[in-house]
Amino acid sequence: GQQLNQSPQSMFIQEGEDVSMNCTSSSIFNTWLWYKQEPGEGPVLLIALYKAGELTSNGRLTAQFGITRKDSFLNISASIPSDVGIYFCAEYSGGGADGLTFGKGTHLIIQP
Amino acid sequence: ETGVTQSPTHLIKTRGQQVTLRCSSQSGHNTVSWYQQALGQGPQFIFQYYREEENGRGNFPPRFSGLQFPNYSSELNVNALELDDSALYLCASSTRQSYGYTFGSGTRLTVV
Q1: CB burial class (10 A; 0-12, 13-18, 19+) of residue B76?
Q2: What pLDDT digit, counting tens, does each position of A55-75 carry?
Q3: Rounded CA gap, B84 and B61, in Å?
Q4: Across the A/B interface, how many CB contacts are shorter than 8 Å?
Q5: Which tens digit of pLDDT belongs to each residue from B66-76?
Q6: How crowded is the C-beta side of B110, counted as CA atoms within 13 Å?
Q7: B22, exposed or middle or buried, with CB in 10 Å at 0-12, 13-18, 19+?
Q8: Cross-chain CB nearest to A99 (options B4, B58, B104)
Q9: Are the beta carbons of B22 and B7 closer than 8 angstroms?
Q10: Do residue B42 and residue A90 have CB atoms under 8 angstroms apart?
């Protein structure tokens, strides 16, 4: 089955810094999704990408769907304490009933 | 509108026992899917229900089964529990045509 490789596994940054994380796959995807999960909660959708090359922003978050359709990145600008959490990339291969495939996540920790 | 609600929030079971987890989907959503999230991992797709029938399944054995009811709520049943079944079980609802999965906060199952 498909595998999504996320990096880095964890990030320790200072408040105010910019953050960049990415996700790669051995397969071509139709949709890339980025989720954030906080302790005790389920994942929350941040950004959805539908076309190769697409660049989409949501406030301080920006994500891009790679041209090869095998990768995506998520950037967070000027990080704040509430950005702490685990960020997952996920793909929806559009088969109708295959569910989402998630990466293992990037754990973001912000030091004040 | 109400989001996805899951019950119970925490559960402890003994190896070999059976467990039923419950999920109420978000208003207007007719598709429900279940995910297993082991500690330190991303969620893994178990199965999906649409119109009260299973229409997609991940790599999980038959002792994982489910139901969807006419009001779109759902149950996940796990028989013959094993220690490795200890995980956070997440329910997600969506419309048939949407990538907008809304996740519940999950049920933390511990098997001892």
Answers
A1: buried
A2: 999 999 999 999 998 999 999
A3: 13
A4: 58
A5: 999 999 999 99
A6: 5
A7: middle
A8: B58
A9: yes
A10: yes
Q: How far apart are CA B43 and CA A79, in angstroms?
A: 25
* Token output for B1: 């509108």
- Find all residues with CB under 8 Å of A98, minimum gap 6, and list them: A92, B45, B56
Among candidates A42, A92, A102 on the partner chain, residue whose Cβ is nearest the Cβ of B42: A102
Q: Which of B77, B86, B80, B79 is nearest to B111 (CA)?
A: B86
DSSP per residue, A36-70: EE-TTS--EEEEEE-STT-EEEETTEEEEE-TTSS
Amino acid at position B5, single letter: T
Query: Is B107:B8 a contact under the CB 8 Å cutoff?
Result: yes
pLDDT at position B46 over 70: yes
